[in-house]
Amino acid sequence: MTATPDLRTPQLASPDLLRSVFRRHAAGVAVITARGEDGPVGFTATSLTSVSAEPPMLSFGIGTGASSWPAMSRTEHVGVHILGEHQQELAATFARSGADRFGAPTGWREGPNGVPVLDDVLAWVVGRVVARVPAGDHRIVLAEVLLGDPAGPGRPLLYHQGGFSGLRD
C-alpha cells in the first residue's frame, strides 16, 4: 500500500515542523571536539556532511547558543569522531548541557594540533577550519581534513526519532 501525502493540510514553516520532519531522518552520530581556552570542548552532531573529495572537506552545524560555540568560533582545528553503536552513553554525554564531557568515563588524549581525540571510535579525523558560514541561529563550519583513522571496529550509531540506536540486519 502506498501512502499519499495529504496536500490539503500542510503545516506552515516553523521550528517545530523542521524538528518533526528531521526526527524521521536517520542520521549518523559524530562528536566534534576542539581545544578551548579553558580546556577541551565538544558536542554531539548529526549534521556531519562530506563536502568535497579534492581537497578532502567536511561540514557540520553548531548553534551559536551552544556552550561549545565560543571555542568553535575561534579554533583553527577540530576533531570529528564517528561513533559506534556501543557509544550511546558517550553521545548522550556530549549532547547533555552542563555535562563533564571529558571527565571519566570518557577516554581521550590530546591529538594533532592539540585537538582532543576520543578513544574507541569507528573513525576520526582532524581538520583545519576554513570557513564558518552564518545559517540562521547556527553556523556551518567547513573544515579541510588533514589526517585521521577510519579503522575502528564496529557498526555506526544512528540518531532517529529522538533517540540513539544501531543498524538492523
Question: What would you note in describing this structure?
Answer:
This protein has 169 residues and is mainly β. 12% of the residues lie in helices and 43% in strands. The protein has a domain at 25-67 and 77-150: Pnp Oxidase, Chain A. It is built from 3 helices and 12 strands; from the N terminus they run αβββββαβαββββββ. Strand 7 (108-110) and strand 8 form a beta hairpin. The two termini are 23 Å apart. The mean pLDDT is 94.
Task: Describe the structure in brief.
This protein is mainly beta and 169 residues long.
What structural keywords apply?
single chain, 169 residues, mainly beta, Pnp Oxidase, Chain A, 12 strands, 43% strand, globular
Label the overall shape.
globular
State the share of residues found in helices, binned by percent.
10-25%
Strand content: 35-45%
Give average pLDDT, whole number. Answer: 94
Please give the structural blueprint:
Layout: H1 15-23, E1 27-28, E2 30-36, E3 39-45, E4 49-53, E5 56-63, H2 69-72, E6 77-82, H3 88-95, E7 108-110, E8 116-118, E9 123-135, E10 138-149, E11 158-160, E12 163-165
Antiparallel strand pairs: 1-11, 2-3, 2-6, 4-5, 5-10, 6-9, 7-8, 9-10, 11-12
